[in-house]
Amino acid sequence: YRSINHRVDSKSLWLYRWYYSRTCQWILSLTITVILALAFIEKPSSLTVTSDVRYRLPAWNPPCGLTESIELLCFLVFMVDVSVKSYLVGWEEFWKNKWLMAYILTLIVSLTDWIVSLSFLCTEDVRVRRILRPFFLLQNSSMMKKTLKSINSTLPEMASVVLLLAVHLSLFTMFAMLLFARTKDGQQDKEWMVYFRNLPDSLTSLLVLLTTANNPDVMIPAYSKNRAYSIFFILFTVLGNLFLMNLLTAIIYNQFRGYLLKSVQSSLFRRRLGIRAAFEVLSSLKEAPANAQQSYVDVGALQQVLQKVEMDSRCKQAITRSLKVCSCDQLSAAQFQKLFEELDKDAIRQHPPSPDYQSRFMQKMQFAFGHPYFGYLGNVVALANIVSICVVLVMDADKQPSERDDFFLGAINCFFILYYLLEMLLKILAMGLKRYLSYPSNRFDGLLTVILLVLEIATFAVYGFPHPGWRPEFIGLLSLWDMVRLVNMLIVFRFLRIIPNMKFMALVVTTLLDLVKNLRAFAGILVVVFYAFAITGIMLFKGAVISMYIKKVVVLSFKEKCGFMGLFCYFQADVTYCLLYLLSLNLICRWAKIYFVAWWLISSVIWVNLFVALLLENFIHKWDRRCHREPLSDIEYQRTVELMFRDVLEEPTEEELMEKLHQHPHLQLCR
């Protein structure tokens, strides 16, 4: 789906293929990973085993020049990257590409800050280049840039709802200050004193209530005084959380889906344009008659090109088969375009056939152990294993380690593991090794069975066979109880094998897996936001918060490099109340609220709703496909983000393609 607006001479095409080769892209990805990972060892750093400041050792502080040297190497790779990109697109296209100009500007600022850092012998507190590092990850992914563009287009609609939230918050803040005003009786003013003392405190208290982080604490003093005050808090929560927040989700889903659809439509146009450009180039190799109405491509020339081009083997084989079936020697533009529609189809993987046994006994064995009911029996046995483990754990919950008798648990583990091994071998016998391994659920089962068998053999080798009073002394790396616990955890994990057999649960799981595989761009942007806010928090609040205990919760300073985990907790709106407590103690400047409110808006309000919208889109799409077509047992369909919207995309017209081709800055067509 890449753009074809690049140089097309032989040397430039060689450089283009070299740049997009797996080796170069792997080096670039490794460089981005390294420069982002530097934050974990740079000062201030807390890269230790434990995060508890009472027990952890001082973090390693690298000498000045070590991380800076690694940074310089990364910058050199990025300079080569931006130079190659700029050369390939040409000077005219370079000035149209805002991402390339931003890339160069980011490198200039980063190198300048790097020089300043060395001149201060790495003692400066503010390093601007650390905040800019996520940009290198962002610009390297076309899907992330496309997603960011879609988010930017959605912002006006989101801003209207956020403004409505602000109005809702402001009105209820004024109502709260009037309801909970200070009275003559100081004993009855707990609500005013703690939550609504002034305008900033009132606004902050209700903003946190919107996240439900301080619910019901914020209403307890007023509720204790008069139950009728609860109406105020109920109205605020219902209007804010149930109506406005869900309205925001609906608007984001509606608008973002439309903008993402437009973006995917432009991707389809680029693919069609690239195929049409290939047709025009191939048709120019053969001189057409003067009176020819349209151009044609020689099939032999196309076959020679297909042998050299890098393409998915499935698509290449399908195109080659179509050419062999075609009896014509030449292809028109429409035929050429239709030939490459194989690229737009679902990726289909056929499972290998089962072995063909001649013996009647083996055929009966194959039928019995290859039948779905045999798999259902395995699920029942796995459930029985889980139930037996639960019974033993409940019985031994209050016992001391010296009082436990591990004989029963060890015996049932031995029995079930032997069954799992027998089940795996019988399935391999019935299906054949290649067919058995072609199913992800079988690979999952087989791997866990082998691990369980190895652990069980190791347990018997070290501690002997289970017997009454089986409590030997500690020997080797793990105690007997540790090894039994590890085996049981793997058995519990193995119970997930039932998911493919439950239709609706399998649908939910495959939806989540598709999000992980195909929507990595959204997770990448989330990492960018987390990284930028964490680094900003480290610089803003360095030394501002001391280690202290608040209701048995240890609040760590950003100086101790806990910015990322702090933001992750705040992402879930769990530490908001603690942060407000710190603000009330004047441990943090009150202007710090702007930082945390900005993070809440971007992460919890905007980004979570975007993720919900994409989850809904993916789930609805899969549900519709499941309703219209039940996949065959031997076929697996794999979808990408582009294919998710394939049914509603419009094909570009001939005039649109030719007009765009004639505007190509480097490709000169004869007609």
SS-derived structural category: mainly alpha
Number of strands: 6
**Major β-sheet, in short?**
2 strands, antiparallel
Say what the CATH topology of the domain at 360-501 is: Four Helix Bundle (Hemerythrin (Met), subunit A)
CATH class of the domain at 360-501: Mainly Alpha
Shape, principal axes of CA atoms: globular
| Average of per-residue pLDDT values | 77
Tell me what the structure shows.
Helices cover 66% and strands 3% of the residues. The chain is an all-alpha fold and 671 residues long. The strands form 3 sheets. Strands 1-2 form a two-stranded antiparallel sheet. Strands 3-6 form a two-stranded antiparallel sheet. The chain has a two-stranded antiparallel sheet with strand order 4-5. β4 (548-550) and β5 (553-555) form a beta hairpin. α15 (360-370) packs across α17, α16 runs antiparallel to α17 (407-431) and α17 packs antiparallel against α19. The chain is globular and about 100 Å long. The two termini are 25 Å apart. Mean pLDDT is 77; it is low at 546-565, 568-575 and 630-639. It is found in: Late endosome membrane; Lysosome membrane. Pfam families: Ion_trans.
Question: What's a quick, concise take on this entry?
Answer:
The chain has about 675 residues and is mainly alpha-helical. The protein has helices spanning about 10-20, 20-35, 65-95, 100-120, 130, 135-140, 140-180, 190-195, 200-210, 220-225, 230-285, 300-310, 315-325, 335-340, 360-370, 370-395, 405-430, 435-440, 440-465, 480-495, 505-520, 520-540, 565-570, 575-585, 590-630, 640-645, 655-660; strands at about 295-300, 330, 345-350, 550, 555, 635-640. Among the domains are: about 270-350 and about 645-665, Recoverin, domain 1 (Orthogonal Bundle); about 360-500, Up-down Bundle (Four Helix Bundle (Hemerythrin (Met), subunit A)), CATH 1.20.120.
